[in-house]
Write a structure and sequence with these properties.
Layout (H helix, E strand, L loop, with lengths): L1 H13 L9 H27 L5 E2 H10 L9 H13 L3 E5 L5 E5 L1 H24 L4
Antiparallel strand pairs: 1-3, 2-3
Helix pairs in contact: 2-5
Length: 136
């Protein structure tokens, strides 16, 4: 079996991976993309947690996220509203206008499922890491 794996690896190196250069610059790009993806998922998790119990305006969401120490939207409030609109299009949250012309966002059933999924993924990852490092 081990010989088959070695043969397969050699064949892949000679065909599909031939000429593939994974230098420091490419490594840094991959690391940055992973970090960005992790930050986006973490930010989405915090945003959905903020809306878990009650509807809030975009400004209230921003204040709550900043109180949790998330600086992702610092001096970039427009990014938060883009994310809110994206989540609204995906039907993860629903926006409703109040009589005072303020838009309140709340989780939908789909959003609650998404929140549970993100929460489980985050904590299963941390649990796995703790076990791997011998803490548990």
């Amino acid at each position: 079996m081990e010989d088959q794996i070695k043969h397969f690896k050699k064949a892949m190196d000679e065909t599909h991976f031939k000429g593939l250069a994974f230098d420091f610059k490419n490594q840094e790009k991959v690391k940055a993309r992973i970090k960005q993806t992790m930050n986006e998922e973490q930010t989405k998790l915090y945003l959905l947690q903020t809306l878990q119990h009650e509807a809030k305006t975009g400004f209230e969401v921003l204040q709550h996220i900043e109180q949790m120490g998330i600086t992702h939207f610092e001096s970039q409030e427009g990014v938060l509203y883009q994310l809110l609109h994206q989540l609204e299009r995906e039907q993860i949250i629903q926006g409703n206008w109040s009589s005072e012309e303020e838009k309140y966002y709340q989780l939908t059933k789909k959003g609650l499922k998404q929140l549970k999924k993100l929460h489980q993924e985050r904590y299963s990852h941390h649990s796995h890491r703790l076990k791997k490092e011998g803490w548990v």
